Request: fold
Amino acid sequence: MGFCSPVCKTLRRGKYFVLLVLSLSVLAWITTFSGETVKSVSTDSASTQIIAKGDGLRDKFNSWTAAPNRVNPTPQKVKCPQESPLLQGARKLSFESSLKLKDVETENKAVTEGVYEPSDCIARQSVAILIPHRSRERHLLYFLHHLHPFLQRQQLHYAIYVIQQSGDATFNRAKLLNVGYLEALKDYSWECFIFHDVDLIPENDHNLYVCDQHPKHLVVGRNATGYKLHYKGYFGGVTAMTKDQFFQVNGFSNTYWGWGGEDDDLRIRVELQKMKIIRPAAAVARYTMVFHKRDSGNEINKDRMRLLGRTPKVWRKDGLNSCSYKTLSVDRLPLYVNITVDIGKP
Ligand code: UD2
Ligand code: MN
Reply:
């Protein structure tokens, strides 16, 4: 609205003329472009089959994005960050009696046959979690429910292996873990192994399930012991060792049947190799142990002190290199690899 002089009117008309000329040139340019595109891409890219004639600019865009090794290479995955941005710190754990395996499977669709790998970055370590097991199904369910999301928040490439002792002979935690190590290495060259009780649930995801320069003990404290270190050389519950560290100590002893001693034996092996045991800060290395009584078939091993005394003499001959067993089945279930094994009896 308002006053417009004759000069202003001429200018306005001129503006319309310039606009018209511009639009006509754009139209002419698009037509030329479209013809060229159809011709040039139709020979060298499978993706061109979906190109419709006359859609020149979009075609050109398609051919740029859909021919990865020609113009625009597929973005390469980069290493995951030193500290995962997904960590949440201390979390309240839940142990719902109504929890079902199907629920846990539904929550973990990104896990395939017990294995997970981050989709958007390359994990810093490939870790096998080994669980010795017999008749603790409920604990296993809670374990899977908590550990899968926990490990995923740490952006690890990992697999969960459950090593089931068949039969009802006395339980042998250490030998089952040796079997787990040997069997898991048949699947993949895991660089780190976590030896894990089924009933221990980590409370803080800053407790990283990765290996270090030295063997690592991840349980500083747990609910039942007031979150204090049990005793100075304590090495039970959950430990992390690289493939090479575990090989160097010849794994666990195979000779501890029943409860106790096998974790101290591993500590002696580590010390004999002049390796140190490291632990995360007490504030993060906290666990809840699901309540349980001593299992039948895992009675206290009264011979354990004698066995511990001879470890320096026998470790070279008793361990991974003498672990004899019969694998009865390997089932690749959605959330874990289930290895059932006959490890003999005392
Ligand atoms: C302690 C140690 C454990 C081990 C054990 C002595 C901690 C937190 N844990 O655990 O690492 O050294 O003493 O052997 O200090 N299991 C079964 N079915 C059985 C028996 C055992 O699945 O019938 C497995 C299961 O993974 C269990 C683990 O073996 O968590 C250890 O047995 P436990 O929980 O009975 O022994 P606990 O809590 O005294
Ligand atoms: Mn326990």
Remarks:
- The chain is about 35% helix and 15% strand.
